[in-house]
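Reviewers asked in the last cycle whether our approach scales beyond single polypeptides. To address this, we selected a multi-component target totalling 454 residues and predicted its structure end to end. The input consisted of the following lines:
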Amino acid sequence: MNSAIIVAAGRGTRMGPNVDKLFLEIGGIPIVGHTWQRFDGVAEIDEILIVTREDLRPAFEELAIELDVQLPWRLVLGGAARQDSVANGLDALAPATEIVAIQDGARPCTTKALIRATMDAARESGAAVAAMRVTDTVKESADGRTIARHLDREKLWAVQTPQTFRVSIIRRALATARERGLVLTDDTAACELIGQPVRLVESATPNPKVTVPADLPYVELLLREQG
Amino acid sequence: MNSAIIVAAGRGTRMGPNVDKLFLEIGGIPIVGHTWQRFDGVAEIDEILIVTREDLRPAFEELAIELDVQLPWRLVLGGAARQDSVANGLDALAPATEIVAIQDGARPCTTKALIRATMDAARESGAAVAAMRVTDTVKESADGRTIARHLDREKLWAVQTPQTFRVSIIRRALATARERGLVLTDDTAACELIGQPVRLVESATPNPKVTVPADLPYVELLLREQG
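The resulting structure, written as structure tokens, was:
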């Protein structure tokens, strides 16, 4: 059995006060609705868990009807930090789940092909992540004022979501992070702690996260191009 | 005296055969024309050198008339690699030039405020570069297949252009690179060789380089937003 966890619990404070970025609309559909539709269209997925806040429950129930979603879905309450929300999602998975794809709700351009490719790679090797080669020249700065070190661009990858795992592996990885009291920015970082290699799955098209209002027109453009 | 060098010599092979990306038009003006206009609007600049290929000379002469450029400008022949083109530009600078801003011709969204800010920083500290904080989670991979190392995003900056220098400093830095037979991807990397610190000047708005055809709609959107 394969499941998807869509993380949609954050308040997105960088979007300004009283704005829930996940419900900003593009083409009449909220951002998180686009994300949901992508996963809803992958036949290999058996269930979708949406991790969110209690106050958004009615909005998601309405959205499911509006989008006429096909795959079974459930709401799960999120935690204080992203890591807690992911943990709550993992706790709520159906016991038979073998592969889980964890997705940022605010990443609506993720393609079905990309979702499938991370699932295949995770089945094969245990852990996989959607990623793009970094095309910018990247420097390290300790103080944010001057360049400290040049990084070799050829080796750099920007990781996105889905981050997809064999369930037993991501559970063990996050438990280890919790035991050590670590707060991690992404789920693949936890795999490093248990020596689990993470496969890079290259995104064929841009797959950005909506973080600030200025990201919206670009994401709108991408969604229009993808059709 | 302050000068700008616009590097416009590359063939942009990633754009496909027989396409000179610099002359792809956005809003009726070639990409390199937008770039030129930004520098043409900075009163503190005394002269603009455009480093390009012999076969593009007529196109640039026509463009100057079309754009009705105000600042004095000259064409300089480029070299085989970017580094050679920059060197040719530096060799051609007026002897009185103290500060030089080196710009990718294919980066048309660079604002006048950003150009000025890098000039001020270079005057103060010798070397400065336009840059943006990296918002993606970045991983290092040795083989391009699996993640080798997590990088601390807080310390990462994507550098752009202008890269702006006191002329004496960039000349010494590039001469050192040449002596050591190094091919560098950007001019600030040469400063590292001579122990010259490079100041980061944060771009307030996106400042991407047009590299593949898919970049065009995004850049068009940015130019429209900037007005």
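The first helix of chain A runs from residue 31 to 40. We regard this as preliminary and will revisit it once experimental data from Aim 1 are available.
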